[in-house]
Amino acid sequence: MDKLEFRHLADSTKADHEILQPYLEAENQFTADRVLEMFTSLRDKDCGPLPVDMFEHGLQAATLAQRDGADEETIVCALLHDMGHYVAPMNHGRFVAEMLRPFISDENYWVLQHHTIFQAYYYLHHLGKDRNARDAYKDHLFYDSAVRFVERWDQKAFDPTFEAEPIETFVPMVRRVFARPPNDAPADGPLSAAVA
Predict the structure, then answer these.
(1) Are 88 and 95 in contact (CB under 8 A)?
(2) Of the four listed, 16, 63, 160, 175, which is most buried by Cβ atoms within 10 Å?
(3) What b/e readout covers 60-85, taking b as 16+ CB neighbours within 10 angstroms?
(4) What's the sign of the alpha-carbon dihedral 119, 122, 127, 133?
(5) In the chain, where are the structural domains located?
(6) What are 119-157's pLDDT values in tens digits?
(7) pTM for the whole structure
(8) 32-70: per-residue pLDDT in tens?
(9) Where are the alpha helices (DSSP H) in 28-155?
């Protein structure tokens, strides 16, 4: 593919964008593959003193969600929820939430954004802090969903003896979630003009 000739976006033309926009729209078909590649890259990555790496943690959380009867979208969220841990450890919940936002419900988006403070219930008291910090969200519509996410799946997914489903179980689910038409979530970037 020939490169467009503008050096500054302000100098781009209508003809440039008639070439560029279909390319950007077509890029979305590779999103699931790229996300799966990023997730599988976590396999055997140094996890310090944690009992399992983030790849295994995601498989375990997704397996627990699946066995608990969660819907496919929620299972995918459980699989990928800590994927950003290595590149955005201080805000990995928001990192993954934003990546998935165009393809998931408001409920799952909120749970992903806030799962870290909800999971902190299980350890903040060991650090001399308030384990009930999540109660600031007690009246939120999705509070119970976040509690369920961490209580039944996330905090239980650090067991090196747990027999999780293989990644192949979840690949079709990830592909179906990313194959959805983007929802009405606020979008940014060049593609947003085409999907907004």
Answers:
(1) yes
(2) 63
(3) bbbbbbbeeebeebbbbbbbbbbbbb
(4) positive
(5) 15-181
(6) 999 999 999 999 999 999 999 999 999 999 999 999 999
(7) 0.88
(8) 999 999 999 999 988 889 999 999 999 999 999 999 999
(9) 31-40, 54-67, 72-80, 92-100, 106-119, 143-148
Q: Are 122 and 114 in contact (CB under 8 A)?
A: no
Residue 23: per-residue pLDDT? 82
The architecture (CATH level 2) of 15-181 comes to Orthogonal Bundle (1.10)
Contacts of 156 (CB under 8 A, 6+ apart): 60, 61, 64
The closest of 120, 108, 110, 121 to 65, measured between CA atoms, is 108
At 124, list the tokens. 């903040």
Residue 170: φ, ψ to 5°: -100, -15
Tell whether the torsion through CA atoms of 183, 185, 191 and 196 is positive or negative.
positive
Higher-confidence residue: 172 or 9?
172
